[in-house]
Amino acid sequence: MASVGSHASKPLKAVSDERDPFARISSSSSSSSPSSSSSVFYKLLVIRSVNAYWLLTFFQPDEYFQALEPAWQRAFGDASAAWLTWEWRLQLRSSLHPALFAAVYWIADAFTRLIPSALAVQLRPSILIAAPKVLQVVSAAASDWYAWQLAAKLYGLNSTSSWFALFLSICSPFQWFCSTRTFSNSLETTLTIMALYYWPWELFGEREAVKENPKASVLSRLSSHPSSSSTGLRLINSLRFSLILAAFAVVLRPTNLLLWLTILITTLITSSSKPSAINRTVLLELTREVILCGSLVLTVSLISDRLWFGEWTFPPYTWLYFNISRSLAVFYGRNDWHYYLSQGIPLLSIAALPFVLAALYRIPKAGSRAPDLALRTLAAAVYAMITALSLISHKEVRFIYPLLPILHVLAASYAAAFFTRPAPNRASAASSEPASRPQFRRKGLLTAALALNISLAAFLSLGHQPAPLNVLTFLRREFERLHPAEAQALPPFTAEDQDRRDAEEVELFALFLTPCHSTPWRSHLVHPALHARALTCEPPLHTSPDTPERDSYRDEADRFYDDPVGFLGRELWPSQKEWSDGEAVRPERIPRFIVGFEGIEPWLDEFFARGPGAGFGVHLKRVWEGWNGFFNEDWRRRGKLVVWDTGVYAD
């Protein structure tokens, strides 16, 4: 493949650069125009802002319950009515991720206090809901930008391949669907591609000076870069910055360690003058840097967790213990061993899949030792992570999301060669004249692929499962209409506020009879006085793996769908005789609204019209219903999401 400013080469091969690979890699960033790179980044910010604004659908509950709910509690206090899941109670998650959003909430709340009170009451909920998206816009734009910059390092600054890497990232439906969501996987992806960009790929080069002195250390080799001493210092700092970013990614998601072990091992092997042995000095130097940078990040993480949880703890260890030793991850689903091969990579890649598969089957070449070995190392990281994660029973596509920018960088060479032909003329390397642009070909296929990606991204962002977010907007606005005084209350909220509300027997505003975590929670309900209740799905923490007790365990949501009418009569609203003697819990208050998917309506009618709840005076009336997509893999979530007014409260 040929690109802008390169000689033509064999089809489907990356561009060869005649310059020294060390000079090309180390100078790619500095030689680029700062204003040009900044211009691209600003445009990416605009694109991802549109992305975030038009992302109006629900994907997976961890987006809210592993990030925004703990952040909400930290920002607004224990009485803010945030829903903390069992992972936070048992300290399985690092506090670093929600701490970022807690700071965003604090800043957004401080901003609303500067607005006139009458206007602040109306704007505050919208501002608080939108605030986390600002952080995600920056993260998503950085992910795109660093993927482009890494491709520029490996293929050449203005090569067609580097621009195709940016094009693939911007037009990726999965990137559009997930990059601006508040998953820890999204931040992990950004940190990973940033760390890969700053990783000193010069370690993979082989210079005559190294051959003459094979015992030279890694840092000595970087420091002796011929350009200048400042260049060597910059490369050393780049290594350390890369390791720090990688360490933060590992703290967020311990499985990210698989990728970096591959990078480190490959670096050690290929940086040795003898491929069959690992240079002892190289090993010592890299080990020292890994320990120093890792210790710095670990110290920050430990202090953050100490301040967050109130005691010394190490969430990555707890996470591994519960998910691997206790096998609790499989409680949320099992998948076939080939899931990431048959579904994961295709879902990540969509229209780029042929080029991704081609790049993984035959790793592209950049034409020089250092970039070629870097591309092989990136491919090895993909192989290693897919292989290791395939051995774990519980699998999700977002677990391999950090591989997506890597796949874009690898596939860019093949995509560029397929859709472009070499420029007819090329300026000489010494010429200051701009190189001719490549000519596009197969425009029909390119248009079709782009249309497929755009259509899929639009559907997933606007049309697939929008109801879980829309229903909370309806409930929040109804609460503001019915209880304007309580809706104007501002944080911080104290334990005394919560005790007062409990003593006053405030109404149960909404009862969610849905599979657990089917909607966001306080991050979208906002008002702590809006009392709501939902079915839970706590895992069987008290059981051991592969025991009859574990296999027969049914959480609260399971019990409801096993026997809906019986569950309502036994666990939510038992008769006076059943709970007055202390053998059962006190019944829930009758809610103002019941929220559920339309499939439960016959069960509600049976319970309240002809069953044990016939004497409660409930007369269900649909007051809101929301479209939730054409399909859902969970039969319990199929159909419209509905809000029924029970009729037991006067407006």
From TrEMBL:
It is a multi-pass membrane protein. It is found in: Endoplasmic reticulum membrane. GO terms for molecular function: alpha-1,2-mannosyltransferase activity. InterPro entries: GPI_mannosylTrfase. PANTHER family: GLYCOSYLTRANSFERASE (PTHR22760), GPI MANNOSYLTRANSFERASE 3 (PTHR22760:SF4). Belongs to the glycosyltransferase 22 family. PIGB subfamily. Mannosyltransferase involved in glycosylphosphatidylinositol-anchor biosynthesis. Transfers the third mannose to Man2-GlcN-acyl-PI during GPI precursor assembly. This is Mannosyltransferase. It comes from Sodiomyces alkalinus (strain CBS 110278 / VKM F-3762 / F11). The lineage of its organism: Eukaryota, Fungi, Dikarya, Ascomycota, Pezizomycotina.
